[in-house]
Amino acid sequence: MKYLTAMYISLSESLGIYTRDQLHELLSNNQHSMPISRHRAAILQSRVFFFCAIFAVLVPTWSLIDRLFLPDSLWLELVLIRLLSATAFALLAWQARKEPDLKRARFMLAGMLSVTPLFYLVSNHWLQAYELSGTEQVIAELYALLPFVMIAGLTLFPLTLKELLAYATPMLAVVVLSSLPETKSDIPQAVSTIWLFSLILGVAMFASLNQLRYMLSQVNRASYDVLTGLLTRRAGIEMLDLQYRLATISENNLSILYLDLDHFKTVNDVYGHDAGDVVLKFAAQQLSATVRKGDSVIRWGGEEFIIILPTATPDEANDVIARVMKAGLGSRPDGTPVTASIGVAEVQADTVKDWKALIELADHRMYTAKTSGRARSVGIQETQLLWPASSAQCIARSTADAPATVSDNQPEPVAS
Questions:
Q1: Does 241 share its domain with 185?
Q2: pTM exceeds 0.90 for this model
Q3: Which residues sit opposite 184 in a β-bridge?
Q4: C-alpha distances in angstroms, 59 versus 29, 45, 90, 299?
Q5: Shared domain check, 179 and 250
Q6: CA-CA distances (angstroms) from residue 387 to 40, 263, 378?
Q7: EC number(s) in its UniProt entry (predicted)?
Q8: Residue 244 sits in the same domain as residue 389
Q9: Which of 8, 150, 268, 348 is the most exposed place for a label (fewest CB within 10 A)?
Q10: Beta strand pairing status for 296-301 and 412-414?
Q11: CA torsion through residues 154, 155, 158, 163, sign
């Protein structure tokens, strides 16, 4: 047991696994974020394209070698299956040039991995129908290496363990089926073939998982802000672009909240940047905890945040704002509450031409909220929600701003 534990620890460290979440990320993609899924889809499709483009050329070209050494009748049969395989590879290469999508990438990889075993099974059936010897037999035996080539190719794809097993199991079944011994003397050859395939499969699994672990660490580093743990602006732009295109294609709602913490500069100036970091971090935690499941919070820059609300109507966006105001964003070092000025924009109601225009509109309304007294949101048709009176008045007194008058302690709609 002690040796098994030591082996597990050694293997985990070699794969960069130090937490349970990191282990789950390698087992399945259920916990992968959208930036990771999009990046992985792009890698999978680009490598499927590379492999398929090469195979589309090499597979029919090999028929020249078959022509030199194999019987004419066998050569004609193999040419037919080679042309069909090359066509399949060419179609997959063409599909791989489309917009990266993880579901599409998986299907294309499955298609690529299925063409070669099918080619092998058919060609092996034809080859066994002929009595071959010498160079002919050597050429025929090269066909048996095709499943090994494909399983070794998995080392270039960042796959989870679940995906690896799903792709490798059919190929293992093909190898076992084709290696079944007909006589007792064939048993050692069958065992060695299956053992060699299993060994290459193990190496491919380790290499693929290691590649996935490295990709996860790099994408997480580039996609998530170190201080707040929110999406970075770069990752947020990818998210915005994707959600905007999905909303326009399906004609669904998509709301954007642009938040700017009120008087944050005074926190840095009076109490220092360390205190400002504490305020930012807690505000980010509050935003993440308050928004809906499926919403995305982005640190846009400094004390500015953007919240993407897929399928949210303007009224639903206001509901999210009301929850944010009620939950609060924490306190400043002097004990006064942190508030924010918020601008709202929505794809269908505002009929913008792209996501950049949507952000600009939300930014403009956020600026309107600031010039109107801060601690409020400004949405479509200048509809406003005010921060709870106790928070707004307290922060106003601490900054010598005129207080925003509200009738109670809950966010209240105000006509423009």
A1: no
A2: no
A3: none
A4: 33, 20, 11, 50
A5: no
A6: 41, 15, 12
A7: 2.7.7.65
A8: yes
A9: 8
A10: unpaired
A11: positive
Residue 153 CA: distances (Å) to CA of 66, 113, 170, 263: 24, 9, 15, 56
- Residue 376 has a CB neighbour count (10 Å cut-off) of 26
Distance CA 255, CA 157 (A): 36
Nearest by Cα to 21 from 157, 202, 163, 220? 220
Query: Which helix (DSSP H) or strand (DSSP E) does residue 89 occupy?
Result: helix 72-95
* Helix extents (H) in 328-377: 347-350, 355-371
Domain carrying residue 374: 233-414
39-54 confidence digits (pLDDT tens): 899 999 999 999 999 9
Structural domain count of the chain: 2
Q: In the chain, what is the straight-line distance between the N-terminal and C-terminal CA atoms, in Å?
A: 71
At 408, is the pLDDT very low, low, confident or very high (cuts 50, 70, 90)? Answer: very low
Asked whether residue 86 falls in the same domain as residue 168, the answer is yes
Please report whether residue 228 resides in a domain: no
DSSP single-letter state for residue 387: P
Nearest CA to 237 among 296, 289, 194, 286?
Answer: 296
* Single residue among 223, 245, 262 that ends a domain in this structure: 223
Dist. CA 376–CA 9, nearest whole Å: 52
82 and 202 in a single domain? The answer is yes
Contact 97, 31 (CB under 8 A): no
